Amino acid sequence: MTNPAERLVDLLDLEQIELNIFRGLSPDESLQRVFGGQVAGQALVAAGRTTDGQRPVHSLHAYFLRPGRPGVPIVYQVERVRDGRSFTTRRVVAVQQGRTIFNLTASFHLPEPGIEQQLPMPEVPEPESLPKLADEIREHLGTLPEALERMARRQPFDIRYVERLRWTPEELKGAEPRSAVWMRAVGPLGDDPLVHTCALTYASDMMLLDAVRVPVEPLWSRRGFDMASLDHAMWFHRPFRTDEWFLYDQESPIATGGRGLARGRIYDRAGRLLVSVVQEGLFRPL
């Protein structure tokens, strides 16, 4: 059986069908919509494939416009907006069955010397001391429901929550809208920096909006909201490997008007800030 990390690499390996046009697979899974992190990661691959490979991406800004259909290929059309002396800009439109479902603008920057400072990483337990997410859910429920068991087998990331999951309304009392997880790919991802960047983009959409829900409902119980990502922005500060442990520290400063805002900071084990993330999501009561 293929390792889930290998499947992730395959998912990010787009087929080039024209000079600036790429096609990506969309797994035929029992989901209502295509996972947003997959579309963002594939769009960034398409953008990166049209650069010289010497300038790493430093930021992306994206909008989720329509839900993608699982099992249907997605076509990524890249516009080469700018090739400057220091910066390269690409715009990507994702199309499925003739309809635009997503767009992304990515900027690539040739690294240069400058100011060096950052806020410190929060003090948290080491990842090896924390239970895997599937084990924590299995411990609480006694066994994993079939759908979660399939998800756990296919999950390309080892996920470990810094704080134990809350399961009851009593445990939610006084909880702040914050969450933190250690993550890493479950297997090697190779040595292409673009693959690692796009894999982290994929992972960044996995639970960031959960920070909005922490004071309201248990994260792994039946959801009381229909949730959907509206937009997504990332700033890449330093090189990294996504198959090594990274801490995803998340908070939600506000939720109102049916939308919730979440911010994330991604650190390596040495405490270096690697990536900053901001996302807004839609929260409609069911």
Structural Rg = 19 Å
Low-pLDDT regions:
none
As a percent range, the share of helical residues equals: 10-25%
- Biggest sheet, spatial arrangement of strands: 1-2-4-5-6-3-9-12-11-10-8-7
Please specify the SSE layout and strand pairing.
Blueprint: H1 4-12, E1 15-18, E2 21-24, H2 36-49, E3 57-64, E4 74-83, E5 87-96, E6 99-109, H3 133-141, H4 146-154, E7 157-161, H5 169-172, E8 178-185, H6 193-204, H7 210-213, E9 225-236, E10 246-256, E11 259-268, E12 273-285
Antiparallel strand pairs: 1-2, 2-4, 3-6, 3-9, 4-5, 5-6, 7-8, 8-10, 9-12, 10-11, 11-12
Helix pairs in contact: 2-6
Keywords: Hydrolase
Organism: Streptomyces lonegramiae
Domain Acyl-CoA thioesterase-like N-terminal HotDog: 33-109
